[in-house]
Write a structure and sequence with these properties.
By secondary structure, this protein is of the alpha/beta class. The chain contains 7 helices and 11 strands. The protein is 34% helix and 23% strand.
Length: 244
């Protein structure tokens, strides 16, 4: 078959960005937490496996520490068959910097960008699909959990000042999905104005765009402390048992 007979290349519409450049200081070890073993595999592999298998994700851009670029591109991606990883880029000092760096490598033809924490290993295919569909409808969407505990506002000397109404409060998780052009503009504006955020939804909201929530799961934990690895192993074992 000559070139004229070759099928046209499909432009990816949905690209997942996985910020995995954190140092994981709260884990207390020398190895970045995203590469710690969970169930015998690097933590980041569990997140990447779901994105790789998702029918709504066309490409993955992975942002990692400069020192791990070669390992992630030529070892991890190949060993685990992550064919959707098309770019591995150097992350920044903060998570926000890593996402911005990755966004600069996403094709202009991309419609939706999904941002998912490398250290949330228990994301599901359903979460990814739902958040992408919601972002297509509204512009921005996040996975989140309604607050179930009683919330106290505490002042000086540990004194409770008031009990906060928990009904409108949600705990943000990832994945989060946004229209690419609007998310990139929000990141560039935040960089220029030195605005810092702990998640991309904040920047999207700050830029004046609507964001809706898709209900997540209590299992969709973010591994940040040593005890989270113990919880993660328990969740993994329970899932493996349920699959048998």
């Amino acid at each position: 078959m000559d070139q004229t007979d070759a099928p046209p290349r499909q432009t990816p519409l949905v690209v997942a960005i996985v910020p995995a450049a954190g140092r994981g200081l709260r884990m207390g070890g020398a190895l970045p937490k995203q590469f710690l073993a969970l169930g015998g595999e690097p933590l980041v592999v569990h997140s990447l496996r779901v994105l790789q298998a998702s029918p709504v994700i066309d490409e993955i851009v992975l942002a990692v520490p400069q020192a791990d670029l070669d390992y992630c591109l030529n070892d991890l991606a190949v060993r685990f068959g992550f064919s959707k990883i098309t770019k591995v880029v150097a992350g920044g000092k903060e998570r926000q910097d890593s996402v911005r760096h990755a966004l600069e490598h996403v094709s202009e033809e991309t419609e939706i960008v999904v941002v998912h924490d490398a250290v949330r290993p228990f994301v599901t295919a359903g979460m990814v699909t739902e958040v992408v569909e919601a972002a297509r409808r509204v512009g921005g969407a996040i996975v989140a959990l309604p607050m179930r505990d009683t919330v106290k506002q505490v002042g000086a000397e540990g004194r409770i000042e008031r009990t906060v109404d928990r009904q409108p409060l949600w705990l943000a998780q990832t994945p989060q999905a946004f229209r690419r052009d609007q998310l990139l503009a929000a990141h560039c504006k935040a960089y220029a104005e030195k605005v810092h955020a702990t998640d991309d939804a904040f920047l999207f909201e700050w830029a004046g765009h609507p964001v809706v929530v898709v209900e997540g799961s209590g299992e969709n934990i973010k591994v940040t402390r040593p005890e989270d690895m113990i919880i993660g192993e328990a969740i993994l074992k329970a899932r493996m048992k349920a699959d048998k």
